[in-house]
Amino acid sequence: MSVLLIIWILCTTLDLSDSTPDECEDEIQRLRAELKSLELRQTKQQQLIQRLMNHNQMDEHSLKAGSFYDMGDKQYMDCAQIFKNGSTQSGFYMIKPLLNLARIRVYCDMTEGGGWTVFQRRSDGSQSFDRDWNDYKIGFGDMKSANGEFWLGNDNLHYLTSQDDYTLRINLEDFEGSHRFAVYKTFKVDNEQNHYQLQFGVYTGNAGDALSGSYHPEVQWWASHQGMKFSTRDRDNDRYDRSCAQEDKGGWWFNRCHSANLNGFYHRGPYSAVTDEGIVWYPWHGWWYSLKSVQMKIRPASFEPNDV
Ligand SMILES: [Ca+2]
């Protein structure tokens, strides 16, 4: 603007022998146009820089989230201990629950207050969850990618939940981008001899209490997962005269059969099938909507979160 001002001053106040007022006006117009074009280019460049910065941050974030953090020889019994030790990046770590003979690789979610040991994740349908008893026993899936799908394993889940009083948190997302959660106190998974029987305490959250079926007392006798044994397609421990795991395509603590089926088949949103085999959380989206992503994770009840 200062250049325009100078020209305007020159044109209006000084006697420029070789410039007519029209030429001055033309020059001002030309410079104005040039200035506008420069401003436009600058805006575009700023937008480009911002986009590149965002892209880098996303890359950095997803890279970090998929990172493995080597904590040396020091042993941690869960992700809460790692968090308390000062490691606050989400990613893969080695832990050794007290009953485990060896260390195991786990995904630690250090968001939502931090210290969460994640034992199940669904994100894109890239892994099959329709698997046998042994796969569910030892765990399976992608334990390397930032957003990989996996099951940590029922033995590990038993070891973890035997060593302390754990709170379970389930995060759910649908294909419309909405998020819900369910928290259960005193989450426990029994040992293999007892078919990894499920126990959990009081529910809080906004997804609805699918695990206990308390959303509708009349359905509890067949829809509650409280006290249910784990079933897979090759081990039927459910309370149904056929096999829930076979019909609903995943291992789970089936009753006859379920109001939550988070290891179900990865349909995308509303689906139709012979049975309610999708990734179902009944109180939120009913039996005929399969969720986009799920995360199941635990943290000691005694953990004091930083910022929940
Ligand atoms: Ca059965």
Automatic annotation (TrEMBL):
Highest taxon listed in the record's lineage: Eukaryota
GO aspect biological process, one term: positive regulation of heterotypic cell-cell adhesion
Gene3D superfamilies hit by this protein: Gamma Fibrinogen, chain A, domain 1
Protein name stated in the entry: Fibrinogen-like protein 1
InterPro entries reported in the protein's UniProt record: FIB_ANG-like, Fibrinogen-like_C, Fibrinogen_a/b/g_C_1, Fibrinogen_a/b/g_C_dom, Fibrinogen_CS
Assembly, per entry: Homodimer. Interacts (via the Fibrinogen C-terminal domain) with LAG3 (via Ig-like domains 1 and 2).
A matching Pfam family: Fibrinogen_C
Gene for this chain: fgl1
Protein task: Immune suppressive molecule that inhibits antigen-specific T-cell activation by acting as a major ligand of LAG3. Responsible for LAG3 T-cell inhibitory function. Binds LAG3 independently from MHC class II (MHC-II). Secreted by, and promotes growth of, hepatocytes.
Organism annotation: Sinocyclocheilus grahami (Dianchi golden-line fish)
Location, primary (coarse class): secreted
